[in-house]
Amino acid sequence: MIENTSPSPPTDIPHQEIKSIPFDLFSADNTHLVNHITDFPLVFAVTLNWNHADDTLACLESLTQLEGIRCTILLVDNASTDDSVLKVRQRFPQVEILVNPSNLGFGKGFNQGMRFAYQAGADYVFIVNNDTYLAPDAVSILLQHAVDDVGILAPVIYYASQPTVIWAIGGKVNPLNLEVAEKGRGTVNNGNWPPDLERDFVTGCAMLLPRHTLEKVGFFDEAFQMYYEDADFCRRVRQAGLRILVVPKARLWHKVSASSGGSGSPNERYFMARSSVRFFRKHGRGVRMWVIVPYRLGSAIKTTLRLLWAGRVESARAYWRGLRDGLRDKL
Question: How far is the CA of 227 from the CAs of 272, 287, 322, in angstroms?
């Protein structure tokens, strides 16, 4: 385990050794692959934890079962106060762990992991929420669609509570109000999709990032503590001339909003509101703001009424505090 005493990512890190090789490679039918394992691209799978040991262990279990790739697994722990790190160390000794002295949030935490992976020579970085688990072939399928002009590859994400129902399949961005239209949520995969789907946006819940993306675009904007850092990142990827692809045959399941206390919780509503204001202030300048402001005001009123109708008074208050703080934030 690597203990960090500051929030800055480590520098001058030597190339990492292979921590695990899929068991399938050593089967009687695949022994010829072992001699060529170093020809595979090096993937760093990075996940972030804060006081969710059970979710993290389940996620790491699925990452250790990934097939057909050369993979190092890295856990970034955001100063958990439970026994997460101890449990991970005991159950998965092959997993690299970065332990932060304080909670850096989503963007900074994942940036730390991505920088570590980049400095360690990763060809691809797979960032994934710790409240997920994925099919063993998910990343290897994504790699089959990796070409020079692709900046992000993503799986189709299903609800963990409804394993056949789609939670996220990416979306297109309205050029006027910058809203994302995500078709497919709540539907069942009918198997009629093309091999890949070009998108303007995919959720940061799971992204496979080629090394050239990090070199051209950089990392998450760390001013977004939680939420909208993925929308900002996707926008910068597209502005860099790179494509974003969702690959339907790659599958992942998400427990949805566990790190923020659950969908509709005061914490989730606060950070969603605050980050949304920052995003639209950052990317909606000029004439576009004449469309965005009334649209977002209407959205805020609808969100408030929905929360009040559901009896979530504290969540409604947190939502408006987030809007206020987002307007006060410096860009």
Answer: 6, 25, 12
80: phi then psi, degrees, rounded to nearest 5: -60, 145
Closest CA to 219 of 149, 118, 123, 120: 118
| CATH number for the domain running over 2-254 | 3.90.550.60
Question: Mind listing the pLDDT tens digit for each residue in 63-97?
Answer: 999 999 999 999 999 999 999 999 999 999 999 99
Cα gap 217→306, rounded to integer Å: 37
Q: Quick one: which of 260, 126, 263, 238 has its CA closest to 185?
A: 263
Query: Rounded mean pLDDT of 187-211?
Result: 93
The DSSP element (H or E) to which 164 belongs, if any, is none
Q: State pLDDT tens for residues 132-143.
A: 999 999 999 999
Task: Give the orientation angle of helix 229-239 with respect to helix 266-283, to 10 degrees.
Answer: 30
Write phi, then psi, for 76 (nearest 5 degrees).
-105, 120
Going from N- to C-terminal start, the domains of the chain cover 2-254, 266-328
- Alpha-carbon distance 272 to 1, whole Å? 33
Contact by Cβ (8 Å): 65, 97: no
Six token digits for residue 133:
């688990």
Q: Average pLDDT of 5-18?
A: 34
Average pLDDT of span 157-171 = 94
Give every CB contact of residue 283 below 8 A, 6+ residues apart in sequence.
Answer: 178, 232, 235
Burial of 206 (0-12, 13-18, 19+ CB in 10 A): buried
Band (pLDDT 50/70/90 cuts) for residue 257 is low
Alpha-carbon dihedral angle through residues 38, 39, 41, 43, given to the nearest 10 degrees: -20
- pTM of the shown model: 0.84
Using the 8-state DSSP alphabet, how is residue 26 labeled?
A: G
